Amino acid sequence: MIAVLSDIHGNLPALEAVVADARARGCREFINLGDILSGPLWPRETADFLMAQDWVTIAGNHDRELVTADSAEMGRSDSHALAELGRHHLDWLARLPATLQWREDVYLCHGNPDDDIHYLMHRVEPDLIRDAHVHEIAAMVGPRGSHVIACGHSHLPRHVALADGRRVFNPGSVGLPAYAWEYPHVHRMELGSTHARYAILTGQADDVAVDLVAVEYDHRAAAARAEANGRMDWAVPLRTGLVGG
Questions:
Q1: Does residue 174 fall inside a structural domain?
Q2: CB-based contacts of 57, cutoff 8 Å, min separation 6
Q3: C-alpha span between 176 and 120 (Å, rounded)
Q4: Do the domain assignments include residue 80?
Q5: Residue 47: pLDDT above 70?
Q6: Which domain holds residue 100?
Q7: How confident is the model at residue 239 (pLDDT cuts 50, 70, 90)?
Q8: Cβ pair 154, 177 in contact under 8 A
């Protein structure tokens, strides 16, 4: 059994709760799909925790930006993380691949196989957020992944089967259940739930199964941490599961 995590965003209490739950269910391997540290929570402590693990890990868009973007042009979440991280943390992030054919039957990406910005399993239109159609997902995936394709980025858990039998899934976010973003149109990604999310992979190849899991944790402590750091735009989603406002 393999636990698949994404979008931790420096939320150490949520990460610890997910790891404890996954281990209690029998998971002995872990995969991290990126967006690991960015945010006003516990970036340094989260990095220290993860760097001590022997996990398969890829980079998300925020991880890429932390090591390549001009610090003067970073958003507030990346800037907060950067101010707390040491050189060894950034070097670790810089070594992470953007995508990975992990096993012959499992392909890993953050956004989609071609970039870390555009959602694979959801579509942002001017007046709505919708689930991407199976044929739209298949077109973005192309030939990658003989059996399983795992992605993150949207923070919304979803699992679909393509026409050829390949499974595509997003485990949801460990650390942030809702957010607002302006690209490609202003939109909100929100679940209305404060749970930390992850997925469990069992089996291999044609016998693989994907289970999406929700875990309770002390989300109020995470919200209080965000509020203490002046980030009500994080505190409200962490406290309610909704963007608010």
A1: yes
A2: 31, 32, 34, 36, 50, 96
A3: 19
A4: yes
A5: yes
A6: 2-240
A7: very high
A8: no
Between CA 91 and CA 31 the distance in angstroms is 19
What would the 3-class secondary structure string for the chain be?
CEEEECCCCCCHHHHHHHHHHHHHCCCCEEEECCCCCCCCCCHHHHHHHHHCCCCEECCCHHHHHHHHCCHHHCCHHHHHHHHHCCHHHHHHHHCCCCCEEEECCEEECCCCCCCCCCCCCEEEECCEEEECCHHHHHHHHCCCCCCEEECCCCCCCEEEECCCCCEEEECCCCCCCEEEECCCCCEEEECCCCCEEEEEEECCHHHCEEEEEEECCCHHHHHHHHHHCCCHHHHHHHHHCCCCC
pLDDT tens digit sequence for 81-122: 999 999 999 999 999 999 999 988 899 999 999 999 999 999
- Considering the domain boundaries, does residue 245 fall inside one? no
Handedness of CA 136, 140, 142, 147 (dihedral sign): negative
According to DSSP, the residues that pair with 131 across neighbouring strands are 122
Nearest to 176 by CA among 150, 196, 151: 196
For residue 221, the domain's CATH number is 3.60.21.10
- Give the count of domains, the chain: 1
Asked whether residue 232 is domain-assigned, the answer is yes
| pLDDT for 144 | 79
Contact 21, 55 (CB under 8 A): no
86 burial level (CB within 10 Å; 0-12, 13-18, 19+): exposed
Are the C-beta atoms of 194 and 239 separated by less than 8 Å?
yes
Instruction: Give residue 15's pLDDT band: very low, low, confident or very high (50, 70, 90).
Output: very high
